[in-house]
Amino acid sequence: GAVVSQHPSWVICKSGTSVKIECRSLDFQATTMFWYRQFPKQSLMLMATSNEGSKATYEQGVEKDKFLINHASLTLSTLTVTSAHPEDSSFYICSPRDPGQGEAFFGQGTRLTVV
Amino acid sequence: GQNIDQPTEMTATEGAIVQINCTYQTSGFNGLFWYQQHAGEAPTFLSYNVLDGLEEKGRFSSFLSRSKGYSYLLLKELQMKDSASYLCAVRGNAGKSTFGDGTTLTVKP
After folding, report:
1. pLDDT tens, B40-58?
2. Is B76 in contact with B57 (CB distance < 8 Å)?
3. Choice between B75 and B40, residue whose per-residue pLDDT is larger
4. Is residue B5 within 8 angstroms of chain A, CB to CB?
5. Contact A111 B40 (CB under 8 A)
6. Does A2 touch chain B (CB under 8 A)?
């Protein structure tokens, strides 16, 4: 199956700082990457869809200037949480659009804690 | 839009069989997924159904009825390690998936 590497797996940062999360597809070309956020005891909520070489599309209610997405190559998509606040503390997970049919893969997830 | 419903919690005994139901209402349908998620970890893929019927994979089976907007995940010979959250997700248009809130399964000895 496809291998997706997400880094870092956890990060603690101070309020007001920015954090970059990387998601790499190791054995296939991901033209599209989905970014999800999961708060404790809640399900995954799609934040945005990044497309290689073009602007990301954001779901309703997600601030595009706060959650910067870059998808500069077919193997790397990044999510930067800018000016982080404690309410941004969450589990962020990437998932490439599946190259075939019938399966979906996720990165390992990034646990962000803003203090 | 998408609306997905699944029970919040279930409890079962080791060695038993448990069925987790999922109903959905969607504006587009390109398959239904089941995932397992342990606390603090990313989801892992369990099954995918796009046509009506039962898909079996070892101890896990998944069923889909598109006309009824209904699916279930069947877990047999339950083991303690099966204690986890089980997420039902429907893939709609453009490859986007909408997730249910998950069912927390507790397996007791």
Report:
1. 899 999 999 999 999 999 9
2. no
3. B75
4. no
5. yes
6. no
